[in-house]
Known about the structure:
There is one protein chain. This protein has a single domain, classed as Aldolase class I (TIM Barrel), CATH 3.20.20. About 25% of the residues lie in helices and about 20% in strands. It is built from 7 helices and 9 strands.
Amino acid sequence: xxxxxxxxxxxxPNSRNRSDRLASNNYNVHMQENRKTHAIPESRxxxxxITEIFHxxxxxxxxxxxxxxxxxxxxxxLRCTYCDSEYAFYxxxxxxxxxxxxxxRKYATPHVCVTGGEPLAQKRCAELxxxxxxxxxxxxLETSGAVDISQADHRVSRVMDLKTPGSGEQDKNLWxxxxxxxxxxxxxxxxxxxxxxxxxxxxxxxxxLDELCDVLFSPAxxxxxxxxxxxxxxxxxxxxxxxIQLHKLLWGDVPGK
Length: 257
């Protein structure tokens, strides 16, 4: 689909369904093979369950475009309608902090993003975040906003969702997290419809979210027109950053990217 005004491709469109995408992409082969046994170590001290570790361009938030190592933790207590990482709900491989660091160091970038699933659902995630900071990495955390973010090291840039009605998980928002948000953090709304936009606009204004940190409005992939959302933001003169998922424009909606 193209923007008839500018000729720029409209952001929507990958026609393959999620099961086709997962079947057709051979990502993190080593971790996939190890995952088949679902081996549980006798001691899980200093370990986390990891779905994948990969190197790509950061596709979202203020760090968009930066080469980044992604550490995707397994498990999530939410089931958002637009989730693009359902493969991280189950499975995974138990990895020690030392092994995670070894994987991260294979790539010549200081940027590390810890994501999920919901990474903070694993109790040792906070320890990993501090270790990565201590090692000199510039660390970001992608979190659903449904778990207490105060456990995350304050050196980390916490990119926290506020779940809209269209996500199906609005009631999971932990509003007390806003008391923890600081200038290094970011708040993200994934917009599925005009109704979601109006709801997000109300939260932005009533809670004065832009005074806490940068606020991101992102169109839900294949649900909300990116151009339409951009026009709403301009019409209402909102103090937010419009964002699209760069990695999906480059590679499609596939794991490991």
